[in-house]
Amino acid sequence: SQKIEQNSEALNIQEGKTATLTCNYTNYSPAYLQWYRQDPGRGPVFLLLIRENEKEKRKERLKVTFDTTLKQSLFHITASQPADSATYLCALEYGGSQGNLIFGKGTKLSVKP
Amino acid sequence: KAGVTQTPRYLIKTRGQQVTLSCSPISGHRSVSWYQQTPGQGLQFLFEYFSETQRNKGNFPGRFSGRQFSNSRSEMNVSTLELGDSALYLCASSLTSSGGGYTFGSGTRLTVV
Question: What pLDDT does A12 receive?
């Protein structure tokens, strides 16, 4: 069965630095790979989606890369701020998945002032 | 526009009882998915509904069921509650059921005692 791993349970960085989060998966590549942010007691919030034929996607301070050879996605937050502190989840979506996202366990990011 | 609304936000039930959770998707969204989130297992897919039809189901016992109404609102039911059913139950809606980001509600925190 498909496995998805987010390498770090927790990541602590200093304000202003770039946070880099990793998502690895086994087996075959998904049609889409998504990143979500989740704050305590809240539902995940959609951030970015990247397709299997795309290498990179950007949105403001966020950047996602997708390497289907390495079976890995990297999620970057540049010029990080304390408000970026949250748990970040990566999710795989296969074509025709009909709502079934396969989520990683998440990486808890803490940005210190 | 209004987001995904889940009710109730918190629920305490006794083992053996049953529970019904409600989800109102974003207006115009016809796909509604349900997830269970626990600290140990993370987010796990329960089922997905589209135009009142269940199109996909995760690996959960038959005690977990759901339905969708003609206005796209959805309910999930858990019968014969077990202590292990304590979790955050999340509903997500999407305009399509593949290739787009999902909008999650804030969830229903179910505690079984």
Answer: 96
Provide, as residue numbers in chain B, all residues whose Cβ is less than 8 Å from the Cβ of A99. Answer: 31-33, 45, 47-48, 50, 55-56, 92, 94, 97, 102
- pLDDT by residue (tens digit) across B54-81? 999 999 999 999 999 999 999 999 999 9
Question: Per residue in B34-57, pLDDT tens?
Answer: 999 999 899 999 999 999 999 999
Identify each DSSP E strand in B25-96 by its residue range.
31-38, 42-50, 53-57, 64-68, 74-78, 87-94
Q: Looking at residue B83, what DSSP letter applies? A: G
Contact with chain A for residue B31, Cβ under 8 A? yes
Of B101, B62, B43, B34, the residue nearest A45 (C-alpha): B101
Q: How far apart are CA A97 and CA A60, in angstroms?
A: 29
**Nearest-CB residue to B104 (from A44, A49, A105):** A44
